[in-house]
Amino acid sequence: MSQYRRPPDDVDKMTSLRVGNIPFKTHQEDLKEVFEKYGEVGDVFIPSDRETGRTRGFAFVRFYDKKDAEVNVYPSRWQQASSLIAVTECFQQE
To answer: 92 with 66: CB under 8 angstroms?
Structure first.
């Protein structure tokens, strides 16, 4: 089974937030739990290094509703566990 996954079919309709400075041990479920209070999360993607398999310290959280991403979350910084995470970009697939 491949360790790489495909994005959801409707990803082009979602608005993505780039979340930086996340701890390397962060899981998709952790971020989904944090962001779900701001709106319906469609997907969480945490890129990893192909050679080492270690996460790269940032993630993309995708919301179904653009307003949830823009108004409620972007731009912001808050404490998550023992590190300060930051939402630094907001964009929609074109």
So the answer is: yes
Could you give the CA distance from residue 27 to residue 77 in angstroms, rounded to a whole number? 19
CA distance 69 to 72: 6
Question: Exposed/middle/buried for 78, CB within 10 Å: 0-12, 13-18, 19+?
Answer: exposed
pTM of the predicted model, to two decimals? 0.77
* pLDDT, tens digit only, all 94 positions of the chain: 335 567 777 778 888 888 888 888 889 999 999 889 889 999 999 999 999 989 999 999 999 998 888 776 765 655 454 456 677 666 665 5
Pick the CATH number of 11-92 from 3.30.70.1130, 3.30.70.330, 3.50.50.60, 2.40.50.140: 3.30.70.330
